[in-house]
Structure prediction request, 246 residues.
Amino acid sequence: MSVYIFSQARFDSTRLPGKVLKAINGRSLLDYHIERVAQVKQAHQHVIVTSIEKNDDCIVTHLSDKDVIVRRGSKHNVLERFVQAAQALALTESDYIVRLTGDCPLVDPTLIDALIQFHLESGTDYSNIDVNTIPRGFDAEIFNFKGLLQVFNDAKEAYQQEHVTPYFYQHPTLFQCASLSFSPPRSAHLRLCVDELEDFQLVERVITHFGNDIDFVSANEIIDFLNMTPAVASINACVGQKKLGE
Prediction:
């Protein structure tokens, strides 16, 4: 049994085009993401799953000297993209996949390790970090390849295929699901993922504040900084999270 981290990324975001390669202090958002994921202790390999579209060639080129595996697939059917990547890497049905998105540059490796351990101990089919108890941008999901194959065979709605995992938690009679929650909640109103320009501006302020230490600061340290600097925390307060299917 091995744990693989699959980070989905593509260049042509509708709200903030090219966001994953937008640079802060000479490094792209995807670079920060990769460096922090590399610190996850229980992960076997990190895989960037992008699309076969020509405008994603720049992502492949950018990653050519990075210590990650790159796999490509359908632009819109990301579920199929994940399955094909797993098959190309010869995952077994008992291997686990942690799903991340490349527009979350400040993922916390300690939290990802905690999620992996939580999932292994709970014995569930699907687990996630509860974004009702921690800021979006530190979230992650985990499931095994067997479950992903079942979802791939059964999920027919376009939004289920685009967002990979909804079929898991929409069918609790088929899959045991659990969430790693934090009590008390850790400033879940904050937002560290990058969908809009305001999100990028906030992340830029966070990265600039921590400087060379940014690869190693924890989610709690980032949350504390934002709570102490409300002018920074409010930069993206106007940004709402899109609902499934939007």
